[in-house]
Amino acid sequence: xxxxxxxxxxxxxxxxxxxxxxxxxxxxxxxxxxxxxxxxxxxxxxxxxxxxxxxxxxxxxxxxxxxxxxxxxxxxxxxxxxxxx
Length: 85
Hints:
By secondary structure, the chain is mainly α. It has helices at 2-10, 15-38, 51-62, 72-75.
């Protein structure tokens, strides 16, 4: 995998943008799954979600990752200084 990125970068491909887009896609799926699990009716129209169950999942996604990696919600575009927590 590293060689593929090195070769692509040598050809002028924006590898960092590709990684960023991939991470955003993964985080969006994780967030969607977290919300879907909490929706008892499993439909998009107007799901009722218990905030007391969603908040811990969001907080965990907001925490820094091992090795100093960017928090999952920040990768998705969240601010680094939440005003609601």
